[in-house]
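Appendix C. Worked example: DinB family protein
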Amino acid sequence: MSDMWVDPADDPRTYGNPKGEKATLREYLLNYRLTLDMKCAGLDAEQLARRSVPPSTMSLLGLVRHLAKVENQWFQRVLQGRSDRPRLFSRDDDRDADFNDAVADPAVVEEAFATWKAEIAAADQWLDALDEDDLGREVPFDDDTVSVRDVLVHMIEEYARHAGHADLLRECVDGRTGQ
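Step 2, the predicted output written as structure tokens:
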């Protein structure tokens, strides 16, 4: 086995046969969250903040900040109706502050990962309290509504897309591919 891959015995992701729609959606979301975490593992602040190719501002650290912001937006602000909460990693003068402010500073890295993991924990705690029937619950969103199910599917899509970005970013940093 290549040293570029995590030993299957050490892979934290699960590929069970979850029972029910909620369990299936939660497993996919969890595995994509873990994939991003694995892509960032073992890198220092400079490596995490390293940008891809100009003019892109995308970096692994930027992805962590962005996904913390997305977790907060959908699970806290939209699904739980907490729109009075401040938007994470956002500035009025820069809609891409989650990426643009992802600088090679250990304190910025620590804050990003702590915030991301706290948002995941808060989302999971809220999701744990839902019944299978709650997936169809509609909440107001913009001038329409959105269901819990739609948000979960969107979050899976969001993480899947960014896991692909993370693959390329990590390969640029140290050649690591796969997983």
